[in-house]
Amino acid sequence: MLNDSALMGMVFLLMLILVVAQWLLHSRQERLRRELFAQQKREIETLKQTVGALCSSAVGVDKRVNRLERQGRDLEERQESIEQSAHYGEPPYADAIRMVHEGAGPEELVRELGISRDAADLIIMMHGIKRDAIT
Length: 135
Hints:
Blueprint: H1 4-87, H2 94-101, H3 106-113, H4 117-134
């Protein structure tokens, strides 16, 4: 059997091993904690940069959306204007075409309808031919 001093030596040795093991575990745990903290810090920085880039992109998208909405409103207004002018009766040059078919000349179109001389000549050239072909 073991004597007391040998038993005490073994207990001391076991305690020493336990203290060293605990110190090693604590050191490893501390190193892992520092590595994890550094990794989290890097990931947070990456997320900050990503959020910043997304915000910048969102501003650009917002500007494009606003521009497209403005263009859409402008087109809608133009379409409404065209539809309203169509509801007021005949197309703008219908009277001129009718007058040309009745034999009116360019001066009469300019005087009666207030269109330009070039427009009157063009209407006569396009619609006067039909009149000449009919007779």
